[in-house]
């Protein structure tokens, strides 16, 4: 009697992986072993970069706040220290948005903490 293998599940697994590889260049999109390796690597990158994205946005916000603060004669660290002491509860994301898109509102915040 021949060995029984679950061909339906195996084919479904390969089909799912190749579907995920759609849009890749060259053999990465249609050769099973190459596509499987590339999908695994892509999923690793996706997991890693979901964490890195948060760090990169925080760095960007800090740069924008620093640039806005220096226009008003303060450094980033001086501004954040003064905001903490004055009890203003604005996070970096909001402060960066104010510095970029609403400079008059950002100036009002800086003047209040000076």
UniProtKB/TrEMBL annotation:
Gene: rplT
Protein keywords: Ribonucleoprotein, Ribosomal protein, RNA-binding, rRNA-binding
Molecular-function GO terms, alphabetical: rRNA binding; structural constituent of ribosome
HAMAP family found in the cross-reference section: Ribosomal_bL20
Statement: the UniProt record of this protein carries the keyword Transferase: no
Cellular compartments per GO CC: ribonucleoprotein complex; ribosome
GO terms for biological process, alphabetical: ribosomal large subunit assembly; translation
Protein name (database record): Large ribosomal subunit protein bL20
PANTHER family: 39S RIBOSOMAL PROTEIN L20
Family annotation (InterPro entries): Ribosomal_bL20, RIBOSOMAL_L20_CS, Ribosomal_protein_bL20_C
The organism of origin for this protein: Roseivirga seohaensis subsp. aquiponti
Functional summary from the UniProt entry: Binds directly to 23S ribosomal RNA and is necessary for the in vitro assembly process of the 50S ribosomal subunit. It is not involved in the protein synthesizing functions of that subunit.
Keyword Transport: no
Protein family per UniProt: Belongs to the bacterial ribosomal protein bL20 family.
């Amino acid at each position: 009697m021949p060995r029984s293998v679950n061909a339906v599940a195996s084919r479904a697994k390969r089909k799912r992986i190749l579907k995920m590889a759609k849009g890749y260049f060259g053999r990465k999109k249609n050769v099973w072993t190459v596509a499987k390796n590339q999908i695994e690597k892509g999923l690793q990158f996706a997991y890693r970069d979901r964490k890195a994205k948060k760090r990169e946005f925080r760095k960007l916000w800090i740069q924008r706040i620093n640039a806005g603060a220096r226009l008003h004669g303060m450094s980033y660290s001086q501004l954040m220290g003064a905001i903490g002491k004055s009890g203003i509860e604005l996070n970096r994301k909001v402060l960066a948005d104010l510095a970029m898109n609403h400079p008059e509102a950002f100036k009002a915040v800086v003047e209040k903490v000076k």
